[in-house]
Structures are given as C-alpha cells and as structure tokens.
Amino acid sequence: MKMTRRAMLAGLALPATAGMANTTYLIHPVAVEDGIWMIHGDDAPIHFSNGGAIANIAIIDTPVGTLLVDSGPSLRYGRTLKAVAEGLTGKPVIRVYVTHLHPDHGMGIAAFDPAIIAALPQAITDMARDGRGFSDALYRLLGDWMRGTELVLPGRKITEASEDFGGRRLRLMALAGHSAGDLALLDEQTGLLIGGDLLFHDRAPATPTADLPRWRTSLDSLAKLPHRAALPGHGPFDPTGQEAIAQTRDWIDWLEDALTAAVRSGLDMVEAGSVPIPARFAGMAAARYELQRSVSHFYPGLEAKWLPRVDMPEG
Amino acid sequence: MARCRFLQLLIAMLPLAMAMPALARSPYPDDPLQSPMWTAHARLIFGDDPVRFDPRIQLLYPQVAENQRSFPVALDARGVGPVKRMVIFADLNPIPIAIDYRPDLAEPYIATRIKLDQRTPVRGAVQLASGQWLVAGGWVDAAGGGCSAPPVGRITGDWAAHLGEMRGEAWPMGTQGSSRLRITFRHPMDTGLVANIPTYAIEEMTVRSDSGTMLGQMALFASVSEDPAITLIPRVAPGAILSIVARDTNGRTYAAKVPVARQSASVLAPQP
C-alpha cells in the first residue's frame, strides 16, 4: 500500500523535479515461504542507477514482530525498507540481522535502533575496521542516494545458536569464507535457509574478503542442513535449496583453478581477467566483472606462491 | 570545431598570416578523451615528434579499478612494425609516467600495475622507428589516493624484511623465437607524497641475454604499484638465461637470472 502511495507521489512530483536524478528506492518484496518475503536486489555491480540496492533482503513475520535479514546500502534504503516491511506484516521491526561486513548489506542499519541490530562478533569487529572506507566508497559511487547515512555498528553480538520469536525459531550459524564472519540463518518453521553472501545464485560470487578453503567448509555445512529452499545473498531464490550451494562452490573452485593456471602459464593480470569463462556460467550475472575483481584480490598471492625466487645476493 | 574553422577562415583571408610561425595552435591532435592535461603531457613526452591516436595499438585494462593502488595495464603494439619506446602514463596522476620502456630486442608488449590517484585517462604511447608516436587509452574511474596513501608494506611494517625479493619465470612463446618473461619485486615504491616517507622507488631495469645483449630496458617511476610486477616478451629461445638488473633511488641493485623454460606452459591456460 505504502509503495503505491509513494509511487503516486513520485509521479505527481515529477514535473517539479524533471531533470533531477530519481533517487527513490522501489522495494518489491515477494512472498517466498509462509511469513517470509524476499527483496531481490539488482544482480549487478553497485552503481548509481541501482542506488547500491544489489543485496537480497529477507522479511520475516513472527508472532512478536518483524525481523529483517540485511538492510541495504543506505539510510534512505533502510527507512524505505522499514516502512515496507512494517506495512506488510503490520508489526514493528524488532530485529535486524546483518549477515556480514559488506556495505551493500549493512549500511542501511543507520535507519534502526542499534539495540535491535545483531551480527556476529567478527563481523562487528570488521565493520569497525573497514566501515569508514566502505562508507567513503559508497558515497563516491552513489552520491545523493547516501545522503545522511552514518556508519552504525550493530549493538548486539550474536553468541547464541538460535533465537526464538514467540515460537518462530531461527537457527543462527557462525560461518566464514566470503568474509571472516558470515552469518547464515535457518527458519525452523519453513526450512528456509538464508545464506547471506555464502550463497550466490546465477550471479557471480564476489571475493574482496574471501578465504576460499573456509568458504568451501562453510558450503559443506550448509549442504548438510535439513533445509528445503535457500535465499541467497545475491541472485534469485533457490527453491531446491542445493543449487545455489553447488553453483557457488563450482565458481570458487573454477576461479582458483583458472587463476592458478594463469599464473603458472605466465599470464599477467590483464590477461588473467580476460580468460574464457566456461559455458556453464553463461547464465551468471556480472561474471566477467567479478572475475576481474577476483584477479585483483588473489593474483599477487598466487604469484608469491607459484613464481620461483630468482634474486641473487646483492653484489 | 567551430573555432578551428574560424581560424582557417582567418588564415585564408589573411595570406600574410600564413607566413607567421606558430599561430598558438597545438601541434598535437585533438584529444578524444578531452583531458585537461593532454597538451602538457604531449609536449613533455612527444616534443616535436608527430603524434596520432591509433587503434592498432592496444592499452588493455580491466573494466573496474578494484584496487586504486594496483591497477593492471598491458600495452600491446605487436603488429605495427619496429618500436623504439613504449610509455604508460595516467594524465591526472601526480606522477603521470609509470614506465618508459625500450624494447631493444623484444616484442613491443609490456604489462604492469600502476597507482591511480583519482579518475584519470590512462594511456599507452608507442614510438615507431620512424619517430611517429601512436597513442591509445581511456578514462578509468577510480577511488582516490592510490599515490598518496602509504603502501601496505609500510602499514604492516614488514617491507624491509622482504626488500629485494624477486620472483620470476620465463616461457617460450610458440614459434616466434620469443619468450614471455614475468618478474616481480618486493619494493615499497614510495611516491614521496605520503607524510614523512620520502620517495623510494625502483627507477630502472634492464633485461639482457646471457651473452650480455640488451633485450629491453626501462625507466620506472613511483606510480608503478608497490611490489612491481612486469611482463615482457624478449626475443630469446628456449633454454636461454635472462639476466635482469634493477636499481632503486637509494642505489640498491637487484639482480636475478631467469632461465627460459624448454616448454610452453600454455596448456595450462589459453594464451590470449
């Protein structure tokens, strides 16, 4: 309802603002399970045209209030999200989970009371370290979309293995690999796994803070869960629950092999970012973009590992 | 454009003016990138030599500057004939030129990583044996500070422990009698633009054959990324030994020998 009114207002205001960039977030939650909605982010890089709204978000209705998993990139997004979610459930937001440190998931918490925002201790530490830099980067890319957004840290450290909201219980899993602290959640009532950025689906995984062996271990744990479906951090809903897990693993395995082969056969970084991407990833959004980012993340380390030392003592 | 036509008209109407030298007109072609620094850099790098933008030379780089301290670039001028010099520069960097390379006995190809201090044109310029310069490049969007933030090795504090470490390998390239050399250095490549850290950078590097023949030589500047990595294609056969010598602004020398492998490793990854 609120969206319709907002859209109408935006339409009425158009003549007055003609020529100005439209910086209103259009948030469309889609029901995916009983009492759970997914907001599908743009499966693209962070860009002014999408306002940085690229991460998926979950809205969960419980007997005692509304829960959110992730909060979007900005104060404006967080405020719109809060209004949309509360309009949907008719209950106030009482908990916001932040799955990991990255700003497309966590800068929107600026719209909420820090006391209701929960994240893994590691993620909070990492946000305190990198948040300022992320904030600068988003302001540079997104301009007015970010207006008023301040860096806020979650006020609650997740140390418990589950949290109960009037009978709706969420299992909270402290994992790692996409970052040093990745939260995954399992809704016990529906069997829905909310994977955060441990899961990418039809959208290439991003690796700026990745530890690939730990990521594989985490994917192993997720694959063994008794879940029925999965809501990935980026990309469409996965009704099978296993496809996003398998696809994420397939990509990071291929990525490591391809970059290792590139270093060992003498390619430079530009060439490594231009290697063919296998046909099975053809449906993956932002594949070339993420490959080239990953080259930047991993290449120096792989060179140090695979190129032999050749220096002679200083004479 | 309109201004150019106006000038032409003026010249046509005043025959006397044609005899006057230097009508305050830039001797360089109009910059397709519309960079504010084009003429200044052109004067510095090209001087009185002829210049043109030419699609036959390629400056290759990724679609996103993921790390403004280390932006990969490759300048490829294979197929345009003999090349004397290859220059990689970024117009709006405080240290614009990154590398000035002379491929004496090498294919005209060089790849490295550079710092970007802001959104800037990044260019490659190639001088043919005739003296003609060919230029290519594009605007690259980047977060600021690549040249004015301290290098990672200064932050972690371990740069001195690894200074002078070199890694490298060389592989034969097909049938052309050329080999691909990759060489990396551990070096902070301090720009002098960070408070209380003076300029400290590798400033020259040569690659010679085992008999001492100069294959390629270059001047490097502090806008080359920390821990420089360089890819060249010297004309040597499998089994040859490449001798690499570099020197930094403190006079420290760096020397390495890299044998060219007997076999190409291209089975591992497709060569572009």
From TrEMBL, chain A:
SMART domains (UniProt xref): Lactamase_B
Q: Report which superkingdom the organism of origin falls in.
A: Bacteria
Q: Which InterPro entries match?
A: Metallo-B-lactamas (IPR001279), NDM-1-like (IPR050855), RibonucZ/Hydroxyglut_hydro (IPR036866), SoxH-rel_PQQ_1 (IPR030811)
- Does the keyword Mitochondrion feature in the UniProt annotation? no
Spell out the NCBIfam families in the cross-references.
Answer: SoxH_rel_PQQ_1
User: What family does this belong to?
Assistant: Belongs to the metallo-beta-lactamase superfamily. Class-B beta-lactamase family.
- Protein name, as recorded: Quinoprotein relay system zinc metallohydrolase 1
